[in-house]
Amino acid sequence: MLKSFKIVAVLEGISYLVLFGNMLLVKPFQPEIYKTLLYPIGMAHGLLFIAYVLLALLVGSKFKWSFKTLGIVLLASLIPFATFYIERKYLNRTA
């Protein structure tokens, strides 16, 4: 389960960056391509976000994380690049 969470954490972070990249880099110059890419990228990111939250709760329960640690791990899903930090700092320490 921890390995799955590590993978999802990295993929969720990547999907977040791709979603922002699409919004910031593609939308101003190619609005039609932006619209075409938005749905599949958004859907992938949404599914990865849900998987991240569910796995965070399961892993946190299994490893008896404190409320503070669980809160930090969950908050990381909302901040770009933060899931990469969490994967390094908290998930490697848990293993």
Automatic annotation (TrEMBL):
Ranges where the DUF3817 domain occurs: 2-90
Listed GO CC annotations: plasma membrane
Superkingdom field: Bacteria
Keywords carried by this UniProt record: Cell membrane, Membrane, Transmembrane, Transmembrane helix
Keyword Cell membrane carried by entry: yes
Transmembrane segments: 6-25, 37-59, 65-86
Pfam families membership: DUF3817
Membrane topology per record: Multi-pass membrane protein
InterPro entries: DUF3817_TM
Subcellular location: Cell membrane
NCBIfam families given in the database record: integ_memb_HG
Protein name: DUF3817 domain-containing protein
Source organism of the structure: Gelidibacter salicanalis
Phylogenetic lineage: Bacteria, Pseudomonadati, Bacteroidota, Flavobacteriia, Flavobacteriales
